[in-house]
Amino acid sequence: AGPSCTLTAAAALSAQNSRLRLLGNLRNLTQVQDVSSTALVQHTASLIALTYHPEEITLQALPNIHSILNYIISGAKKSPLPAVVLKSLLDVFNVVLPIASSNSTLRSAYPRASGSQILTTSQQFTTVQADLLQDLIGLIQSDAVVGENVFSITANGDIRVRL
Q: 51: Cβ–Cβ under 8 A, 6 or more apart, which residues?
Protein backbone atom coordinates (compact mmCIF):
# COMPACT_ATOMS: atom_id res chain seq x y z
CA ALA A 1 0.00 0.00 0.00
CA GLY A 2 2.82 2.38 -0.83
CA PRO A 3 3.40 4.87 -3.62
CA SER A 4 4.17 2.12 -6.13
CA CYS A 5 0.74 0.53 -5.51
CA THR A 6 -0.94 3.87 -6.14
CA LEU A 7 1.06 4.31 -9.32
CA THR A 8 0.14 0.80 -10.42
CA ALA A 9 -3.55 1.38 -9.70
CA ALA A 10 -3.41 4.73 -11.49
CA ALA A 11 -1.63 3.18 -14.47
CA ALA A 12 -4.19 0.36 -14.63
CA LEU A 13 -7.08 2.83 -14.52
CA SER A 14 -5.44 4.95 -17.21
CA ALA A 15 -4.95 1.88 -19.43
CA GLN A 16 -8.58 0.85 -18.92
CA ASN A 17 -9.83 4.34 -19.77
CA SER A 18 -7.62 4.49 -22.87
CA ARG A 19 -8.83 1.07 -23.99
CA LEU A 20 -12.45 2.13 -23.46
CA ARG A 21 -11.92 5.27 -25.58
CA LEU A 22 -10.17 3.32 -28.35
CA LEU A 23 -12.92 0.70 -28.43
CA GLY A 24 -15.47 3.53 -28.59
CA ASN A 25 -13.61 5.07 -31.52
CA LEU A 26 -13.53 1.73 -33.34
CA ARG A 27 -17.24 1.26 -32.67
CA ASN A 28 -17.89 4.73 -34.13
CA LEU A 29 -15.96 3.77 -37.27
CA THR A 30 -18.16 0.71 -37.73
CA GLN A 31 -21.22 2.95 -37.67
CA VAL A 32 -20.11 5.04 -40.65
CA GLN A 33 -18.03 2.72 -42.83
CA ASP A 34 -19.37 0.60 -45.64
CA VAL A 35 -19.10 -3.13 -45.19
CA SER A 36 -16.30 -4.53 -47.31
CA SER A 37 -14.00 -7.49 -46.80
CA THR A 38 -11.07 -5.11 -46.34
CA ALA A 39 -12.86 -3.04 -43.68
CA LEU A 40 -14.00 -6.19 -41.88
CA VAL A 41 -10.47 -7.60 -41.76
CA GLN A 42 -9.10 -4.26 -40.54
CA HIS A 43 -11.74 -3.98 -37.83
CA THR A 44 -11.17 -7.60 -36.80
CA ALA A 45 -7.43 -6.96 -36.45
CA SER A 46 -8.08 -3.77 -34.48
CA LEU A 47 -10.55 -5.48 -32.15
CA ILE A 48 -8.15 -8.33 -31.46
CA ALA A 49 -5.34 -5.88 -30.74
CA LEU A 50 -7.57 -3.82 -28.42
CA THR A 51 -8.66 -6.87 -26.43
CA TYR A 52 -5.19 -8.43 -26.21
CA HIS A 53 -4.77 -7.33 -22.58
CA PRO A 54 -7.89 -8.59 -20.76
CA GLU A 55 -6.94 -6.73 -17.58
CA GLU A 56 -7.53 -3.49 -19.49
CA ILE A 57 -11.08 -4.44 -20.53
CA THR A 58 -13.83 -3.23 -18.23
CA LEU A 59 -17.50 -4.03 -18.07
CA GLN A 60 -18.19 -0.58 -19.55
CA ALA A 61 -16.29 -1.62 -22.69
CA LEU A 62 -18.52 -4.63 -23.39
CA PRO A 63 -21.29 -2.76 -25.26
CA ASN A 64 -18.66 -1.34 -27.63
CA ILE A 65 -17.11 -4.78 -28.11
CA HIS A 66 -20.54 -6.34 -28.72
CA SER A 67 -21.36 -3.66 -31.29
CA ILE A 68 -18.05 -4.19 -33.11
CA LEU A 69 -18.51 -7.97 -33.07
CA ASN A 70 -22.03 -7.56 -34.43
CA TYR A 71 -20.73 -5.32 -37.24
CA ILE A 72 -18.04 -7.84 -38.20
CA ILE A 73 -20.28 -10.91 -37.97
CA SER A 74 -23.18 -9.26 -39.81
CA GLY A 75 -20.80 -7.90 -42.41
CA ALA A 76 -19.21 -11.30 -42.94
CA LYS A 77 -22.62 -12.61 -43.99
CA LYS A 78 -22.55 -10.10 -46.88
CA SER A 79 -18.82 -9.93 -47.62
CA PRO A 80 -17.34 -13.37 -46.96
CA LEU A 81 -14.16 -13.53 -44.91
CA PRO A 82 -11.56 -16.27 -44.71
CA ALA A 83 -12.26 -18.75 -41.93
CA VAL A 84 -8.96 -17.86 -40.26
CA VAL A 85 -10.17 -14.28 -39.78
CA LEU A 86 -13.48 -15.42 -38.33
CA LYS A 87 -11.79 -17.94 -36.04
CA SER A 88 -9.53 -15.22 -34.66
CA LEU A 89 -12.66 -13.60 -33.19
CA LEU A 90 -12.98 -16.56 -30.82
CA ASP A 91 -10.09 -15.03 -28.86
CA VAL A 92 -12.22 -11.93 -28.29
CA PHE A 93 -15.00 -14.09 -26.83
CA ASN A 94 -12.46 -15.75 -24.53
CA VAL A 95 -11.66 -12.28 -23.17
CA VAL A 96 -15.19 -10.92 -22.78
CA LEU A 97 -17.13 -13.97 -21.56
CA PRO A 98 -15.48 -14.03 -18.10
CA ILE A 99 -15.94 -10.27 -17.67
CA ALA A 100 -19.69 -10.39 -18.26
CA SER A 101 -20.25 -13.44 -16.08
CA SER A 102 -18.05 -12.42 -13.14
CA ASN A 103 -20.17 -11.59 -10.11
CA SER A 104 -17.32 -9.59 -8.52
CA THR A 105 -16.81 -7.55 -11.70
CA LEU A 106 -20.51 -6.76 -11.88
CA ARG A 107 -20.63 -5.94 -8.16
CA SER A 108 -17.75 -3.47 -8.44
CA ALA A 109 -19.25 -1.86 -11.55
CA TYR A 110 -22.72 -1.60 -9.98
CA PRO A 111 -22.14 -1.34 -6.21
CA ARG A 112 -25.70 -0.25 -5.41
CA ALA A 113 -27.39 -2.95 -7.48
CA SER A 114 -29.33 -5.73 -5.81
CA GLY A 115 -28.46 -9.38 -6.32
CA SER A 116 -31.32 -9.80 -8.78
CA GLN A 117 -30.18 -6.73 -10.77
CA ILE A 118 -26.65 -8.15 -10.95
CA LEU A 119 -28.04 -11.48 -12.13
CA THR A 120 -30.22 -9.79 -14.77
CA THR A 121 -27.28 -7.71 -16.04
CA SER A 122 -25.08 -10.80 -16.25
CA GLN A 123 -27.81 -12.69 -18.11
CA GLN A 124 -28.25 -9.82 -20.58
CA PHE A 125 -24.52 -9.67 -21.37
CA THR A 126 -24.32 -13.45 -21.61
CA THR A 127 -27.36 -13.64 -23.93
CA VAL A 128 -25.89 -11.04 -26.30
CA GLN A 129 -22.56 -12.87 -26.33
CA ALA A 130 -24.19 -16.27 -26.85
CA ASP A 131 -26.17 -14.95 -29.81
CA LEU A 132 -23.07 -13.39 -31.37
CA LEU A 133 -21.04 -16.55 -30.74
CA GLN A 134 -23.73 -18.73 -32.30
CA ASP A 135 -23.74 -16.52 -35.41
CA LEU A 136 -19.93 -16.62 -35.57
CA ILE A 137 -19.79 -20.41 -35.26
CA GLY A 138 -22.47 -20.69 -37.95
CA LEU A 139 -20.35 -18.54 -40.27
CA ILE A 140 -17.21 -20.55 -39.57
CA GLN A 141 -18.99 -23.83 -40.18
CA SER A 142 -20.52 -22.56 -43.42
CA ASP A 143 -17.16 -21.45 -44.82
CA ALA A 144 -15.35 -23.86 -47.14
CA VAL A 145 -12.72 -25.06 -44.69
CA VAL A 146 -10.59 -28.12 -45.28
CA GLY A 147 -11.06 -30.54 -42.40
CA GLU A 148 -13.67 -30.79 -39.72
CA ASN A 149 -14.37 -27.99 -37.26
CA VAL A 150 -14.64 -29.18 -33.69
CA PHE A 151 -15.62 -26.63 -31.05
CA SER A 152 -15.19 -27.20 -27.35
CA ILE A 153 -15.27 -25.14 -24.20
CA THR A 154 -12.48 -25.83 -21.71
CA ALA A 155 -12.92 -26.02 -17.94
CA ASN A 156 -11.92 -22.36 -17.56
CA GLY A 157 -14.42 -21.27 -20.22
CA ASP A 158 -12.06 -20.82 -23.19
CA ILE A 159 -13.45 -21.72 -26.59
CA ARG A 160 -11.21 -23.98 -28.65
CA VAL A 161 -11.39 -24.87 -32.34
CA ARG A 162 -9.75 -27.95 -33.84
CA LEU A 163 -9.55 -28.38 -37.60
A: 57, 65, 91, 92, 95, 96
* pLDDT, one tens digit for every residue, the chain (163 residues): 555 555 588 888 899 999 999 999 999 999 987 888 888 889 999 999 999 888 888 888 999 999 999 999 999 888 878 878 888 899 898 888 888 778 788 888 888 888 898 888 888 888 998 999 999 988 888 754 434 445 555 556 555 555 4
**Sequence-separated (6 or more) residues with CB below 8 Å from residue 136:** 69, 73, 86, 89, 90, 93
Beta strand 159-162 with 150-153: parallel, antiparallel or unpaired? antiparallel
Find the angle CA(160)-CA(100)-CA(129) to the nearest 5 degrees: 55
* Length, in residues, of the chain: 163
E strand segments, 40-158: 150-153
pTM, rounded to two decimals: 0.79
From residue 84, how far is each of 39, 94, 98, 149 by CA, in Å?
A: 16, 16, 23, 12
